[in-house]
Amino acid sequence: MNQTDHFVLSYGIEFMEFMSGIPHPIQNALLIRHKVKDSHFNMHTMLEYVDQELIEKLVQDDVHGYGDFCWIDFNDEEHLNLLSGQEIAEILYLGHLKDHLRLPFYGKLKNHYVYLAGDDGWFNKTYYKNWDSFFTMLGSAIADKMNNQKEKSLLFRVKKKNIPEIPREILNPFSDFMKEGIVISIEKAVRNRLTTEIPVWVIGDFFDMDEMYEEYETLGGRKPDGKLVFDRKMGEWQAFAAYSST
Can you tell which superkingdom this protein's organism belongs to (predicted)? Predict the structure, then answer.
Protein backbone atom coordinates (compact mmCIF):
# COMPACT_ATOMS: atom_id res chain seq x y z
CA MET A 1 0.00 0.00 0.00
CA ASN A 2 1.33 3.39 -1.04
CA GLN A 3 -0.89 5.88 0.78
CA THR A 4 0.75 8.98 -0.69
CA ASP A 5 0.18 7.91 -4.30
CA HIS A 6 -3.11 6.10 -3.59
CA PHE A 7 -2.18 2.70 -5.04
CA VAL A 8 -1.84 -0.91 -3.94
CA LEU A 9 0.36 -3.60 -5.48
CA SER A 10 -1.26 -7.00 -5.11
CA TYR A 11 -0.92 -10.66 -5.96
CA GLY A 12 -3.92 -12.98 -5.74
CA ILE A 13 -6.80 -10.54 -6.22
CA GLU A 14 -8.48 -11.04 -9.59
CA PHE A 15 -10.67 -8.77 -11.70
CA MET A 16 -13.85 -10.68 -10.84
CA GLU A 17 -13.13 -10.36 -7.10
CA PHE A 18 -12.30 -6.68 -7.46
CA MET A 19 -15.51 -5.94 -9.37
CA SER A 20 -17.74 -7.84 -6.95
CA GLY A 21 -16.02 -6.30 -3.92
CA ILE A 22 -15.99 -2.56 -4.64
CA PRO A 23 -18.82 -0.63 -2.93
CA HIS A 24 -20.52 0.64 -6.10
CA PRO A 25 -20.43 -0.76 -9.65
CA ILE A 26 -18.53 1.29 -12.21
CA GLN A 27 -20.48 2.80 -15.11
CA ASN A 28 -17.86 2.48 -17.88
CA ALA A 29 -14.22 1.52 -18.28
CA LEU A 30 -11.82 3.14 -20.75
CA LEU A 31 -9.54 0.34 -21.99
CA ILE A 32 -5.91 1.43 -22.12
CA ARG A 33 -4.12 -1.92 -22.75
CA HIS A 34 -6.18 -5.03 -23.33
CA LYS A 35 -7.32 -7.88 -25.57
CA VAL A 36 -11.04 -7.34 -25.09
CA LYS A 37 -12.93 -8.36 -28.23
CA ASP A 38 -16.36 -6.86 -27.52
CA SER A 39 -16.13 -3.11 -26.91
CA HIS A 40 -17.16 0.37 -28.11
CA PHE A 41 -14.85 2.94 -29.72
CA ASN A 42 -14.38 6.59 -28.75
CA MET A 43 -13.16 8.79 -31.59
CA HIS A 44 -11.78 11.59 -29.39
CA THR A 45 -9.35 9.42 -27.42
CA MET A 46 -9.01 6.77 -30.17
CA LEU A 47 -9.47 4.19 -27.41
CA GLU A 48 -12.03 1.47 -26.81
CA TYR A 49 -14.30 1.29 -23.81
CA VAL A 50 -16.92 -0.98 -22.23
CA ASP A 51 -20.25 0.00 -20.67
CA GLN A 52 -22.06 -1.79 -17.83
CA GLU A 53 -23.57 -4.43 -20.11
CA LEU A 54 -20.18 -5.32 -21.60
CA ILE A 55 -18.52 -5.16 -18.20
CA GLU A 56 -20.87 -7.90 -16.97
CA LYS A 57 -19.67 -10.09 -19.85
CA LEU A 58 -16.05 -9.13 -19.24
CA VAL A 59 -16.22 -10.26 -15.60
CA GLN A 60 -16.93 -13.79 -16.86
CA ASP A 61 -14.04 -13.76 -19.34
CA ASP A 62 -10.48 -15.11 -18.92
CA VAL A 63 -8.96 -11.74 -18.11
CA HIS A 64 -5.76 -13.40 -16.86
CA GLY A 65 -5.14 -14.64 -20.40
CA TYR A 66 -5.05 -11.09 -21.78
CA GLY A 67 -1.59 -10.38 -20.39
CA ASP A 68 -1.73 -6.63 -19.82
CA PHE A 69 -5.19 -5.49 -18.77
CA CYS A 70 -5.33 -1.78 -17.95
CA TRP A 71 -8.34 0.50 -17.65
CA ILE A 72 -9.71 3.60 -15.95
CA ASP A 73 -13.37 4.04 -15.01
CA PHE A 74 -15.52 6.99 -16.09
CA ASN A 75 -19.13 8.11 -15.80
CA ASP A 76 -20.25 8.98 -19.32
CA GLU A 77 -18.80 8.89 -22.85
CA GLU A 78 -19.38 12.62 -23.20
CA HIS A 79 -16.79 13.09 -20.47
CA LEU A 80 -14.17 11.31 -22.61
CA ASN A 81 -14.64 13.97 -25.26
CA LEU A 82 -13.62 16.65 -22.76
CA LEU A 83 -10.14 15.19 -22.14
CA SER A 84 -7.21 17.32 -23.24
CA GLY A 85 -4.27 15.97 -25.23
CA GLN A 86 -2.15 16.16 -22.07
CA GLU A 87 -4.67 14.09 -20.11
CA ILE A 88 -4.93 11.47 -22.86
CA ALA A 89 -1.12 11.26 -22.90
CA GLU A 90 -1.08 10.74 -19.14
CA ILE A 91 -3.66 7.96 -19.43
CA LEU A 92 -1.63 6.23 -22.18
CA TYR A 93 1.47 6.53 -19.97
CA LEU A 94 -0.42 4.67 -17.22
CA GLY A 95 -0.96 1.69 -19.48
CA HIS A 96 2.53 1.73 -20.98
CA LEU A 97 4.61 1.94 -17.81
CA LYS A 98 1.99 1.06 -15.14
CA ASP A 99 2.90 4.28 -13.37
CA HIS A 100 1.51 7.80 -13.17
CA LEU A 101 2.84 11.19 -14.17
CA ARG A 102 0.44 12.77 -11.70
CA LEU A 103 -2.27 11.23 -9.51
CA PRO A 104 -4.67 9.69 -12.06
CA PHE A 105 -7.98 10.98 -10.77
CA TYR A 106 -9.62 13.24 -13.33
CA GLY A 107 -12.48 15.62 -12.54
CA LYS A 108 -13.74 15.29 -16.12
CA LEU A 109 -14.00 11.49 -15.84
CA LYS A 110 -15.11 11.38 -12.18
CA ASN A 111 -13.09 8.17 -11.89
CA HIS A 112 -12.52 6.30 -8.65
CA TYR A 113 -10.07 3.65 -9.86
CA VAL A 114 -7.22 2.91 -12.21
CA TYR A 115 -6.66 -0.82 -12.74
CA LEU A 116 -3.27 -1.86 -14.15
CA ALA A 117 -2.70 -5.61 -14.38
CA GLY A 118 -0.02 -7.77 -15.93
CA ASP A 119 -1.43 -11.32 -16.01
CA ASP A 120 -4.43 -10.42 -13.88
CA GLY A 121 -4.18 -11.75 -10.35
CA TRP A 122 -0.42 -12.19 -10.62
CA PHE A 123 0.56 -8.52 -10.66
CA ASN A 124 -2.02 -5.81 -10.11
CA LYS A 125 -1.40 -2.13 -9.45
CA THR A 126 -4.67 -0.49 -8.53
CA TYR A 127 -5.28 3.16 -7.70
CA TYR A 128 -8.07 4.02 -5.24
CA LYS A 129 -9.44 7.52 -4.88
CA ASN A 130 -10.98 6.49 -1.56
CA TRP A 131 -9.24 4.03 0.77
CA ASP A 132 -12.56 2.80 2.17
CA SER A 133 -13.20 1.29 -1.28
CA PHE A 134 -9.97 -0.70 -1.03
CA PHE A 135 -10.70 -2.09 2.44
CA THR A 136 -14.28 -2.96 1.45
CA MET A 137 -13.02 -4.78 -1.66
CA LEU A 138 -10.30 -6.61 0.32
CA GLY A 139 -12.75 -7.79 2.98
CA SER A 140 -15.03 -9.11 0.25
CA ALA A 141 -12.20 -10.83 -1.66
CA ILE A 142 -10.87 -12.65 1.42
CA ALA A 143 -14.33 -13.93 2.37
CA ASP A 144 -14.98 -14.99 -1.23
CA LYS A 145 -11.74 -16.98 -1.33
CA MET A 146 -12.51 -18.64 2.00
CA ASN A 147 -16.00 -19.60 0.89
CA ASN A 148 -14.71 -21.09 -2.36
CA GLN A 149 -11.90 -23.02 -0.68
CA LYS A 150 -12.44 -26.74 -0.36
CA GLU A 151 -12.57 -28.09 3.18
CA LYS A 152 -9.34 -29.96 3.84
CA SER A 153 -10.59 -31.76 6.94
CA LEU A 154 -13.24 -34.48 6.96
CA LEU A 155 -13.36 -34.56 10.77
CA PHE A 156 -16.18 -32.06 11.02
CA ARG A 157 -19.15 -32.96 8.89
CA VAL A 158 -21.23 -29.89 9.61
CA LYS A 159 -23.31 -27.88 7.20
CA LYS A 160 -21.03 -25.32 5.64
CA LYS A 161 -22.13 -21.74 6.11
CA ASN A 162 -20.71 -18.90 4.08
CA ILE A 163 -18.31 -16.63 5.92
CA PRO A 164 -19.44 -12.98 5.75
CA GLU A 165 -17.31 -10.22 4.30
CA ILE A 166 -14.72 -8.70 6.63
CA PRO A 167 -15.84 -5.18 7.66
CA ARG A 168 -13.36 -2.55 6.55
CA GLU A 169 -12.85 -1.30 10.12
CA ILE A 170 -11.55 -4.77 11.07
CA LEU A 171 -8.85 -4.52 8.39
CA ASN A 172 -7.80 -0.95 9.26
CA PRO A 173 -5.40 -2.04 12.06
CA PHE A 174 -3.27 -3.68 9.36
CA SER A 175 -2.72 -0.40 7.49
CA ASP A 176 0.79 0.12 8.85
CA PHE A 177 1.70 -3.48 8.02
CA MET A 178 0.33 -3.00 4.50
CA LYS A 179 2.67 -0.06 3.94
CA GLU A 180 5.56 -2.49 4.53
CA GLY A 181 3.97 -5.30 2.52
CA ILE A 182 1.98 -8.24 3.91
CA VAL A 183 0.80 -11.71 3.02
CA ILE A 184 -2.70 -12.78 4.04
CA SER A 185 -2.42 -16.55 3.67
CA ILE A 186 -5.69 -18.27 2.79
CA GLU A 187 -3.93 -21.61 2.25
CA LYS A 188 -2.52 -21.58 5.80
CA ALA A 189 -5.85 -20.70 7.42
CA VAL A 190 -6.81 -22.91 10.36
CA ARG A 191 -10.45 -23.95 10.74
CA ASN A 192 -12.26 -25.70 13.57
CA ARG A 193 -15.82 -25.83 14.87
CA LEU A 194 -15.49 -22.51 16.67
CA THR A 195 -13.18 -20.31 14.62
CA THR A 196 -11.39 -19.71 11.37
CA GLU A 197 -7.96 -18.07 11.74
CA ILE A 198 -6.13 -16.51 8.80
CA PRO A 199 -2.45 -15.74 9.48
CA VAL A 200 -0.88 -12.46 8.34
CA TRP A 201 2.85 -11.94 7.85
CA VAL A 202 4.83 -8.78 7.16
CA ILE A 203 6.91 -9.78 4.15
CA GLY A 204 8.28 -6.54 2.69
CA ASP A 205 7.83 -4.41 -0.40
CA PHE A 206 8.00 -6.30 -3.71
CA PHE A 207 7.47 -5.27 -7.31
CA ASP A 208 8.50 -8.69 -8.66
CA MET A 209 5.84 -11.19 -7.56
CA ASP A 210 8.12 -14.18 -8.27
CA GLU A 211 10.52 -12.82 -5.66
CA MET A 212 7.63 -12.16 -3.27
CA TYR A 213 6.39 -15.75 -3.57
CA GLU A 214 9.89 -17.12 -2.99
CA GLU A 215 10.07 -15.04 0.19
CA TYR A 216 6.63 -16.27 1.24
CA GLU A 217 7.77 -19.89 0.89
CA THR A 218 10.66 -19.25 3.30
CA LEU A 219 8.37 -18.15 6.15
CA GLY A 220 8.26 -21.70 7.44
CA GLY A 221 7.34 -21.87 11.11
CA ARG A 222 7.73 -18.16 11.78
CA LYS A 223 4.90 -16.86 13.94
CA PRO A 224 2.45 -14.61 12.12
CA ASP A 225 2.63 -10.89 12.74
CA GLY A 226 -1.14 -10.81 13.03
CA LYS A 227 -4.25 -12.77 12.23
CA LEU A 228 -7.85 -12.41 11.15
CA VAL A 229 -10.24 -14.51 13.23
CA PHE A 230 -13.83 -15.40 12.42
CA ASP A 231 -15.89 -16.51 15.43
CA ARG A 232 -18.47 -18.94 14.06
CA LYS A 233 -20.74 -18.75 17.13
CA MET A 234 -20.85 -14.96 17.20
CA GLY A 235 -20.70 -14.63 13.42
CA GLU A 236 -18.12 -11.87 13.80
CA TRP A 237 -14.61 -11.05 12.61
CA GLN A 238 -11.76 -9.91 14.85
CA ALA A 239 -8.30 -8.63 13.97
CA PHE A 240 -5.05 -8.99 15.88
CA ALA A 241 -2.36 -6.70 14.51
CA ALA A 242 0.34 -8.41 16.56
CA TYR A 243 0.60 -12.15 17.15
CA SER A 244 -1.55 -13.32 20.05
CA SER A 245 -2.66 -16.76 21.20
CA THR A 246 -5.99 -15.39 22.48
Answer: Bacteria
- The C-alpha atoms of residue 24 and residue 133 are separated, in whole angstroms, by 9
> How far is residue 86's CA from residue 106's CA, in Å, rounded to a whole number?
12
Model confidence pTM above 0.85: yes
CB 228 within 8 A of CB 197: yes
CA dihedral 51, 120, 188, 191 (to 10 degrees): 20
pLDDT, averaged in runs of 10, over the chain (246 residues): 97 96 97 96 98 96 94 96 98 97 97 97 97 97 89 47 91 93 94 93 92 90 93 94 53
Q: In what order do the strands lie in the sheet with 113-118?
A: 7-10, 123-128, 113-118, 68-74, 28-33, 47-51, 40-42
